[in-house]
Amino acid sequence: MAALSLPVIVAPSRLHDQAVPWLQSLGGPAWIVLGDPEAGPRWVVVTLLHGNEPSGALALHRWLLEGPRPRRPLWVLLANVVGALAHPVFTRRHAPDDRDLNRCFRAPFAGPSGELARAIIADLVAMAPELVVDLHNTSGNGPAFAVATRRHPVIEALAGRFCERLIVTDLRLGSLMELPHREPALADCPVFTLECGGALQLEAREVAGGLFRLLADCQDLSALPCPPDLEVLVHPLRVELRPGAVVVYDRGPNPDADLTLWARIDEHNRGVTSPQACLGWLGPAGLGCLQAIDGEGRERIAELFEARDGRLHARRTLRLFMATTNSEIARSDCLFYAVPA
């Protein structure tokens, strides 16, 4: 295998017993390799693409302290270490004055995040992995779920062991899981995102740790059966604020906001959302402060939601996920995703 762009640490036998000093000792992004780095095929887990989503890194640290010995080579990338360690630790999506790393896996590769994304792509191409799992936390509290850009038996078999729902999306945002569509060398590799749950949920760390243990014990991914109760939802819509719109979270309408979302909107990450549920309150522009553009560039917001006496309601029964109560994430990323139930 050709030399990699990022540092490689093989089978770390000694590490600090606390996660933050351990990450500080890395000095930046790094590959942690368990097993013979020259053996193959390689399975890859990526974590800390977002610095405020630490469950994967925390689970990895705890697992490494146990001295694991995977049956197959396992490569784990700790990506946005700088963003994760920016004060206060594990609270920033990315370092100040930088870009969201998980929107940088396509040209132009500008700024530090773009350069790091390009280095990660080069390393993955050089590795020719058999699997890539990207560990994240959800923006709000909620159950674990998986996201992929296509259906694949290995993706469904692995996802079904840690969550009940797989989202298959046609949206293209520049994320790592889109690489099979852009890099011919990765075209046949199953790549998916596992959203482990909220960053403060202990269950999220258990999901991430469960993935490491499963991959350490497994010898043949193709032999894993797909759980029969995995729900597959296709082509969710990303609900965003229009540029310049202001959102706040409260228990009643805020006259200074274009949209006031219910203070516990993240409760809708579980189960279904009925048209009877009030999701928030709209300002003078009504639904005009929102957009939901599909993979073909069509505006779909009016198919999903409607205004009733100034309140925001689903037009039909929906499943919402990734609903956040963080106004900064809502402004810079999205409010939530929605798909008809």
Fold and architecture overview:
Its cofactor is Zn(2+). This is Succinylglutamate desuccinylase/aspartoacylase family protein. Residues 40-203 form the Succinylglutamate desuccinylase/Aspartoacylase catalytic domain. Keywords: Hydrolase, Metal-binding, Zinc. This protein has 341 residues and is an alpha/beta fold. It is globular and about 65 Å long. Helix 2 (55-64) packs across helix 6 (202-217). The N and C termini lie far apart (46 Å). It is built from 8 helices and 18 strands. The protein has helices spanning 19-26, 55-64, 81-85, 111-127, 153-159, 202-217, 301-304, 327-332; strands at residues 8-10, 30-34, 43-47, 74-78, 131-138, 145-148, 165-168, 191-198, 231-234, 237-241, 247-250, 259-262, 280-282, 290-292, 305-308, 311-314, 318-321, 336-340. It folds into 2 domains: 8-234, Aminopeptidase (3-Layer(aba) Sandwich), CATH 3.40.630; 237-340, no CATH class. A 9-stranded mixed β-sheet has the order 1-2-4-3-5-8-6-7-9, covered by helices on one side. Strands 11-12-13-16-15 form a 5-stranded mixed β-sheet. Helices cover 21% and strands 24% of the residues.
Task: Supply the number of helical segments.
Answer: 8
Structural class: alpha/beta
Strand content: 15-25%
Q: So what's the overall shape?
A: globular
The succession of helices and strands, N to C, reads: EHEEHEHHEEHEEHEEEEEEHEEEHE
Between the first and last Cα atoms, what is the distance in angstroms? 46 Å
Mean pLDDT: 95
CATH domain fold name of the largest domain? Aminopeptidase
